[in-house]
Amino acid sequence: MSDDRIHVPTADLTPEQTKLGAKLDKRRRIVDAVWARLSLVRLLLAAVGVAWLFALPHPALWKQTFIDEHALSPAQVTVYYDWAQVFRADRYLAEVEALRDANATWAERRDFLAASLRSAGVSAENTTSSVFARVTPPRSEGTEAILVSANWLSRNGEVNVRGVALLLSLAEFLRGQNFWAFDIFLVSGDGYLDGLNDFTEHYAPRANIWTALNIDYPYHSFSHLGVFFEGTNGRLPNQDAVNSVLHVAKYGVWVDTTIHDLDERPQANYAFGAKALLDHFKYMALGRPSAAHGLLAQHRIDAVTLYGVPGEGPHGFHTMGRVVESTLRAYNNLLERLHASFFFYLLPHPDYFLPVGHYLPAAVLLGASVTLGGFDCPDPLAGALWALPAFALGLLGWLTQSSLVSAGAMILPKPKGDARASLASLAHLFYGALIPTLAMVNFPQAVLLAALVILALAPLPRPVRASLVFLHPAVLEYYGGINLRAEWEQFGNVAWPAIFAIWVPLQAVSDMLA
């Protein structure tokens, strides 16, 4: 930096002015020293940010989970789902298995589900690919509701035979009780996600649905209960909804719980925390729901999936039914929507969580490292003009609905001199500001963006930057079976439009600067 200071004879200055001048000189020397070592400062910030990420699975950063909404009072009631209900569920199970073995069509399954619900004494209706019943208790005013669902297919691709059977057994069971203050919707849909999505699209809000449970129980017994909570676009249910399920299972029904479908029993150590958080990031980074409940997040419904992790016992209908009933009883105590607890959190363990203040600094540090690379911008206007082709390429991709347009970045013109430096600076400023902003909404997605930006804009060897191709949407679809376009069209996953607004321009700028 040039020394453009104006030197004034010290004899003409008062003592206060001399003291102030010395302070300003000291600040300038500090700024000059930092500026001269800016690359080192950026590297240090990025290193600390990465180290913070790797520290998140350590129990020292965790906090004990708790129920913030006292009205819930989970596991504080007597539950009535007993062996008579298990016998009823077993009868439904035999019929569901017969439909599965006969490879029944949706029309046949729809007729069976509707007939079973009507025989239980509740009215049943259907949409194109779902069947639902509405249980209206005497005390309910019909303005608020709880939803319980069990889709035909489990998240592992098998038929959700016991989940559907348990759902059907709940119809008569819930209808015969008079302490419910909410209407209760029982929904069973075709496929894994399609049926429940069809219900939400066609449901006329006769009652506002506040909370929901999705039952995923495909095997004859389960060893422990897995809890899935991630929703579409990284939306999470209020943490009290998740904590209530975990509290009921642990203290009310005495069944072990785990995060997702991790096989081993949860341990409060780094290894388990790393596995749970990596699984969490896998869903959140691409905005994908971890189970069928995730579709309800966009409708402001706090929903959780209960997954019976397949195993040779010791738990079955009796355990799952009591967990469902006791959790519904807790949700039934609500006087207003859940709002007191956290909506932004990470769960490394069923009994512990990471609040936003414990993980957000990692994204802030990574974003700051990128942003500092944009402070030297000799010609902002030229840089902005050179950025237009990159964003035009993204617009072309959106109009054609093809991510393959990113290959066109190789033929874009390459700026030189001040224009090149300005384009690089503006890219650092834009993406550097975007990283911490996104982290406030979807932290795993912000971490993914930070990794992409650093790989694309840092002065790394070309083969390292070429590794971005492995995250190309076409590669994800072909090798990983992840069709983001279909998820955007069906469930509103904004990762697909973000590819054209964020990723394609980034790839184009990277190629223009190479």
UniProtKB/TrEMBL annotation:
One of its GO terms (biological process) is attachment of GPI anchor to protein. The chain crosses the membrane at residues 34-56, 352-375, 381-400. This is Uncharacterized protein. It holds the Pfam family Gaa1. The lineage of its organism: Eukaryota, Fungi, Dikarya, Basidiomycota, Agaricomycotina. Keywords: Membrane, Transmembrane, Transmembrane helix. One of its GO terms (cellular component) is GPI-anchor transamidase complex. It comes from the Eukaryota. It comes from Vanrija humicola (Yeast).
